Amino acid sequence: MDAPAQRRLSKTRRTPPGGRLGAFLNARLFGDTLGARIDFAKPLGDPGLYGPDSVAWRVHANPASLAVGGVAAVILELAEPRVRHGVWDHSSFRRDPLKRVQRTAAATMITTYAARADALACIEHVNRMHARVSGTTPDGLAYDARDTELLNWVQATAAYGFLNAYQRYVEPAMSVVDQDRYYAELAETGALFGATGAPRSAAKMDAMLEDWTQSLEPHPILDEFLTLIARVSPFGPAGRPGQPLIVHAAIGLLPDELRKALRLPDKPLLRGLSKPVLRSAGVFASALPGNAPAQARARMRS
User: Fold this and answer.
1) 143 - beta bridge partners?
2) Of 33, 61, 133, 136, which is most buried, counting CB atoms within 10 Å of its CB?
3) Which of 17-31, 53-67, 95-109 ranks highest by mean pLDDT?
């Protein structure tokens, strides 16, 4: 990371407004990453890339549904051969899955809730990392993390995962208008990452998923990812019993035919148990005043 970007991202550590519990949650979810060094409460009045009236601020405020949606997104990414090897062969997922998940969570929080300069600096950093990722799959398919087609798929899977998890665990009656607004909002930000053709409505997302399904396939890397995520929690041993619930809740977000085609485990009992547990966890975590969404709301009210 260059010096100007580092200065923008490296803020003085402090206890966020609202006390230590929110700070503890931030530290666990983000670890020693960019998110832990961002002051989401400043500068006052800066709406960031979305603003408080956006659907993205609403959807991304629930850590439990965000975790489920994030896992669902990675399942869809790892099912595509070029994206799979771009992610797996050039990241720390296998070596340190927790840190990789924390960095992804941090980037989502920063681009959603941080002030505009911090959000753009984060995107700049991610784009520089993508510039280093290219190669060839074992089957001879060339891939490049800057490829617009692949970026569109990655952007679409994130939007699909986050929104469907939010609808499943937080707001089941969410209107189609708000769903479309969400896809459009994320597509605007996705374009800054190079995803210039991400879907801008729920209908276009469904069409894209149908178009891409033929190129998705089961693979041992996907199985390895699910095994790792089921065993690793940002809350250490105390959080591990809940990880299988997150994994199977994420699998449950996928269309039935696709889940079968990818040979993903089907455990309806775990999926059923996940609903009350994840809903309760999400309500609790969302209410903490020291988390990133709360700080961003305070920034806009000041």
Assistant:
1) 135
2) 61
3) 53-67
> What is the C-alpha separation between 182 and 174, in angstroms, rounded?
11
Nearest to 30 by CA among 225, 263, 295: 295
Lowest mean pLDDT: which of 37-41, 156-160, 283-287? 283-287
Helix (H) or strand (E) holding 143: strand 142-144
Is the omega angle on the peptide bond into residue 43 within 30 degrees of 0, that is, cis?
yes
Secondary-structure percent of the chain, ordered helix, strand, coil, rounded to 5: 65, 0, 35
- Nearest CA among 206, 207, 89 for reference residue 137: 89
- Tokens read off for 154: 């990655």
CB 149 within 8 A of CB 155: no
Instruction: Count the neighbouring beta carbons within 10 Å of the beta carbon of residue 300.
Output: 16
> Residue 296 is inside which H or E element, if any?
helix 292-301
Please tell me the distance from the alpha carbon of residue 204 to that of residue 38, in angstroms, as a whole number.
34
pLDDT confidence of residue 217: 97
Q: Which residues contact 258 (CB under 8 A, 6 or more apart)?
A: 209, 213, 216
Query: What is the radius of gyration, based on Cα positions, of the chain?
Result: 18
Average pLDDT in the 199-223 region? 96
Name the H helices within 146-201. 148-169, 176-192
Q: Distance (Å, rounded) from C-alpha 217 to C-alpha 294?
A: 40
β strands within 22-118, DSSP E: none
Supply 140's token pair. Answer: 């001879």
At residue 192, the 3 state secondary structure works out as helix
Of 67, 172, 156, nearest in space to 109 by CA: 67
Per the structure block, which two tokens stand in for 214? 């033929």
Residue 96, domain extent: 3-301
Average pLDDT over residues 111-115: 96
